[in-house]
Amino acid sequence: MLRSSLWRTTTFRLSALYGSIYLVGIIVLLGVVYTAVADSLTRRSENALREEMRMLERAGPAAVLRRLESESAREPLMRFALYSAMGQRIAGDSPLGPDQIPLDGRVRYVPAVGPEPPSQALAERAPWGEILIVARDARQLVALRHIVLTALIGSGAVLVVLGVGMGVALSLQPLRRIQAMQLASEAIGGGDFTLRLPVSRAQDEIDALAGIANHMMDEAERLMLQARTVGEGVAHELRSPLTRLRARLDHAAQGFAPEDPRRELLANCVAEADSVLGRFNALLRIAALEARGRRIGLGRVSLSSLVEQVGELFEPLAAERGIVLKLEGEPGLEIEADGELLFEALCNLVDNALKFTPAGGRVRLRAHTTREGPLIEVADNGPGIAEAERAFVTKRFYRSATQAGVNGYGLGLSLVAAVADLHGFELTFVDAHPGAVVRLLCRAWPPP
Amino acid sequence: MARVLIIEDDEATAAEIARELGQRGLEPEHASTGQRGLQRALTGTFDAITLDRMLPDMDGLAVAETLKSRGVATPVLVISALNDVDEKVRGLRAGGDDYLTKPFALEEMVARVEVMIRRRQADTGRLVLRYKDLELDLVSHMARRAGRDIRLFPKESKLLEFFLRNPEQVLTRTMIFQTVWGYGFDPGTNLIDVHIRGLRQKLDAPGLPPILHTERGAGYRLSC
């Protein structure tokens, strides 16, 4: 992750931009230096050739041969040739001829031919008509240019490598810090609200951002705690007086004769109080589950025996409602889970399925292995869950529009979602046409 | 008369518990600190103790542990906060004690105290349980009422066993679910009702008075 995201960091991008400008600058600079040095070397060599040519011309037709020999002896790098006006070779140690070099007084570069080294050569017609050729061994010049070029490219490469290296090094440091923040944020997102983003002593802009985010999280945690404690507090505070109210209503109901309509009325009040208490209990239970964070009692749970137990518990209820409860537990299938919580979740799912399936329907509880992992499925052939409602069914107090006339506090699936969340299991709802399938995918937890 | 010690630092709660226990014909006594409660409990003259887990001077569980280590066998009902139920608290049920989470219905609390007191007095070694014209053979899962043999499923047998061990005693749905199924959450009214109805159908024959009664909003009672 570090390597791939390196390219996306601001520091690295800036470094890369500066690096490329710097690289172009270096290339231009080195190019100028090279051209200047090479030019100067060439010009010096050309000047030497012209100087020789002038000396030979000054010697005149009578002395030119002698002069040629003495110069040849004095200057080991220089070679000469003398041709007649008609182009016939008269003397000299250079193999070059007037057919190879135009007689325009400009210095030419003659590449190496056979054993002859490359050279710079100048050919001119002397005032007395004969043709003079002066050549200078160019090997030294070429070697010098080569040395200069190599030196420049070498130092350029070192500069570029250093620049890129520094860019990477400079971006790695902030990248590591951002990575630490990412890990912390993920853990916080995972439910550990006690964690905060790391803040260094540098007090730079990253720290400023982390500080702001931490402050936001403090506030969010405070509000969440407040909301939770208010909700729990309300449920908590109201439960005792409600229980007393219920007891008194019940007591009052006992005071009337069985056929008295007031008794019926009071009995209905008791039932209402019971339903309110039921909601409070469910709310408190979910709050308690959520407050547990990831601290759950994991152990090996046999899914087939769990399916069997749930089946045994719900069999009479299903039979009474005229629904066939089918159980399919793959033998020997075990997962890591909190057995009691998982049992409670499955009870809620089966209870829900039984509620929404009309008499004569089918509910199937199945646990089996799939490619993605152990899967628990509760399928029914009731009205199903409309696509638009699927995301909401796990929200507290959500009750489907199709649920009219069905008992329930709308908290069952929130509890299942809370249990799935605690385990890191994946809860999905599928419309099975007809009916709904609730799938609980029990991936290994903690995830590998 | 059975005596119950209430170890609870909150005066209002203690008074409520005491009043409810008094109404059920039990004799309550209140201790407001763990030390004081421990002192009183060590006399061994109580039939049951209700113990708040969060006491100002010590952990309620420490009181319970000290009592056991000193050989006091009085059953203890630990009252714990909802999010404070750990393995230690759950373990209480295995040892003849019990726990209850706050807030609780007073009826539930009293029902549990009464069951604990009765369990202590009952002879648990018996293999056949009897109440009036009803009996249950714990080995063969066979019940018999008014001379008629009734075959029961294992769960039904366990359910009836719980009632027969606590005759004429209100048993709440959560208590039944905990004892018979072994799970500690609230299963909802309907589910247990259905199982009770099934058992009732087997036990009641034409001409016989009903023996399993529904106590509205509280639970069920075995009586004739």
> Which structural class do the helices and strands of chain A define?
alpha+beta
How much helix, percentage-wise, in residues of chain B?
25-40%
Q: Quick one: CATH superfamily of the largest domain in chain A?
A: Histidine kinase-like ATPase, C-terminal domain
- The chain-level mean pLDDT of chain B equals 86
Low-pLDDT ranges of chain A: 399-407
Molecular shape of chain B: elongated
- Annotation, overall tally of beta strands of chain B: 12
Structural class designation of chain B: alpha/beta
CATH classification, class level of the largest domain in chain A: Alpha Beta
The separation of the N and C termini of chain B measures: 23 Å
Number of helices of chain A: 8
CATH architecture of the largest domain in chain A: 2-Layer Sandwich
Biggest sheet strand order of chain A reads: 2-1-5-4-3
Helical amount among residues of chain A, as a percent range?
Answer: 55-70%
Supply Rg of chain B. Answer: 18 Å
Beta-strand segment tally of chain A: 12
So what's the oligomer here? heterodimer
Order of helix and strand elements from N to C terminus of chain A: HHEEEEEHHHEHEEHEEHEE
Q: Could you characterize what this model shows?
A:
The complex is a heterodimer of chains A (448) and B (224). Chain A is α+β, with helices and mostly antiparallel strands. Helices cover 56% and strands 16% of the residues of chain A. Chain A is built from 8 helices and 12 strands. Chain A has helices at residues 2-6, 10-74, 139-189, 205-254, 261-291, 303-320, 339-356, 412-423; strands at 78-83, 89-92, 108-110, 119-125, 131-137, 299-302, 324-329, 334-337, 362-370, 373-380, 426-431, 436-441. In chain A, strand 1 and strand 2 (89-92) form a beta hairpin. In chain A, helix 2 (10-74) packs antiparallel against helix 3 (139-189), helix 6 packs parallel to helix 7 (339-356) and helix 7 (339-356) runs antiparallel to helix 8 (412-423). Residues 399-407 of chain A have low confidence and may be disordered. Chain B is of the alpha/beta class and 224 residues long. Chain B folds into 2 domains: 3-121, Rossmann fold; 128-222, Winged helix-like DNA-binding domain superfamily/Winged helix DNA-binding domain (Arc Repressor Mutant, subunit A, Orthogonal Bundle), CATH 1.10.10.10. Chain B contains 8 helices and 12 strands. In chain B, the strands form 3 sheets. Chain B has a 5-stranded parallel beta sheet, with helices on both faces. In chain B, helix 1 packs across helix 5.
